[in-house]
From TrEMBL:
InterPro entries: HotDog_dom_sf, MaoC-like_dom, UPF0336/Enoyl-CoA_hydratase
Annotated Pfam families: MaoC_dehydratas
Xref: PANTHER family: HYDROXYACYL-THIOESTER DEHYDRATASE TYPE 2, MITOCHONDRIAL (PTHR43437:SF3), HYDROXYACYL-THIOESTER DEHYDRATASE TYPE 2, MITOCHONDRIAL-RELATED (PTHR43437)
CDD domains from the UniProt entry: R_hydratase_like
Record-given protein name: MaoC-like domain-containing protein
Ranges for domain MaoC-like: 4-86
Species assigned in the record: Paenibacillus borealis
Length: 113
């Protein structure tokens, strides 16, 4: 599933989460930290992955999750969320549209009756 990570979505997440670190919101601070643009919060990306998965699987309930971040995700970037059932869990991979892996992990999902 493709999604564009916008500066506005990151601002909204920062306001709700109270994580207003400058690298997420301020271009100058992000550049000083070595990024091209502000970067998305890791927890925003993980929460978005869960939300996207559950949108397509409304009878599911995520009981646990784990995610590792390989690269920061700069705002105003298109990403693809991949979900694959495997051995009783869902493997999750978040990639740039060009294929570079941003994050990967797993969800344990319980089907609700």
């Amino acid at each position: 599933m493709k999604k564009r990570i916008t500066a506005e979505a990151v601002r909204q997440y920062a306001a709700v989460s109270k994580d207003t670190a400058a690298i997420h919101l301020n271009a100058e601070a992000a550049v000083k930290a070595g990024y091209k643009r502000p970067i998305a919060h890791g927890m925003y990306i993980m929460g978005l992955a869960q939300s996207l998965y559950l949108t397509d699987h409304p009878a599911g309930w995520i009981t646990s999750y784990s995610m590792k971040f390989q690269k920061p995700l700069v705002v105003d970037t298109g990403v693809v969320f991949h979900f694959e059932p495997r051995d009783g869990h869902i493997e999750v991979k978040v990639t740039l549209e060009a294929g570079d892996v941003i994050a990967s992990g797993t969800f344990s999902v319980k089907e609700m009756k």
